[in-house]
Amino acid sequence: MASNTQIVANIHRSNRPGKRIWIGIFAAIALVTLPVLPLKFLGIPGPDLDWHSIESLFSKIGVPGQSTTPQTVETAAPALSSDIKLMDVTVRSLLAQVSKNPGDPALHNRIGLVYAELGEPHSAVTHFEEAIKLSRQKIKGLTLTSNQAMEKHDVDKASGCTLEISALNVQLAAAHSSLARVYEQLGKSDKVMAQLNELSKDISLSRVIKASTLSTIAAAPDGSTILSANGRLDADTAALLARADALRQAGRGLEAMNEYKKLSERVPNLALVHKEYGLTALAMRNTWLAQEELEKAVQLNGKDSAAHTALGTIQGQLGQRDKAISEFEKAIAINPKEVNAAFNLGNIYADAGQYDKAIGAFQKAVAGQPGFALAHNNLATMYSFSGDTASAAREFRTAINLSPNMASAHYGLGIACLNEKNYAESAKSFKRALQLNPDLIDAQSKLEVAQKRLRGQLKFN
Length: 461
Fold this sequence. Notes:
Layout: H1 4-7, E1 12-13, E2 37-38, H2 51-59, H3 73-100, H4 105-117, H5 121-151, H6 155-185, H7 189-202, H8 211-217, H9 235-249, H10 253-266, H11 271-283, H12 287-300, H13 305-317, H14 321-334, H15 339-351, H16 355-368, H17 373-386, H18 389-402, H19 407-419, H20 423-436, H21 441-460
Antiparallel strand pairs: 1-2
């Protein structure tokens, strides 16, 4: 049976606080990779979860860090060349994602933004227009479904549709706003006005909400109405929302926060605004504000699993273990396929030595996303802690199939095979782990043990 010290290096964390990824010129390369944060305890080498790690994570969602040192002309030119190369890589990655999921308007919006930055306006226009078309189609279908649900008094289903429509309206607003900026750069003022008019027509975040709840959801602090008679947001509110989203997607986080602040004051009971404000604040490393806004979001809309997950992630970072567990469990109850919540919950239980609960959480993570290599790796590690070496070996092999260069999975498989007296595969796994990470000192000693036992086994046979 392997000891904790032998296995613990196999646990990994991946914090992904948001379902949406924002593009910025200094964050392009991050869209091609996923953060891997090893879980460190019992003295095994590995980075702690500090702000340096979190800053790296934020770079992966497209919000550049704020520099206080002006960049000189001499250093700007090489950086620009490098950024263009990175953005070119990003385009290829995003196009690959679109080929797998062509109906996602968010992907088309992101590709359009990158093309616009690369100086390819016609390609940008194509993707922004596709984002608009897809968003409209999805909103139409969801509106019909929501109305049918309300007729059957299925409030939960109608609320779910409302949430999806709200997210799609944000994508729709962003696409219109981005198109208007591209046309402005091209000097086509008539098309700029056309897009602004279309934006005014399309924004209808609360269309499916019953009239009896409109006053609660969209009342301004001064008692004035935010929604028109047909349930649409008024023009000023819609423009603020579109501007905030556009600024965030462009990586201008501080400006986006200012716009979301205005929105939160104008429509204090609109959960979506508090959610987006909170996620933007988190990306800008304002943890206190992020927690405050996300708490408001889940109070106003307790059925948003992504908001619960984001709030739980913050609470986990702040050491508020019980609160984080509660939020993750709520997220999973709302959406059993909320992979981020299940994965983070598993890590919390693993930290606390509650291996059975950790196994249950990681099982939900791999069920929701079978291709999640880190979740398979962490599940395997928990099986190892629990003495189930056969299940551990199975999950480590799955992790390796999904991510062949994960050194910790090879190391873990070596431990599992060593305990099962499969010394040949154990030695092979330890060798591969050392090739990938020569700093795994313990792997070297375990390799020698496996080789010694293999020689004895062969001699005995």
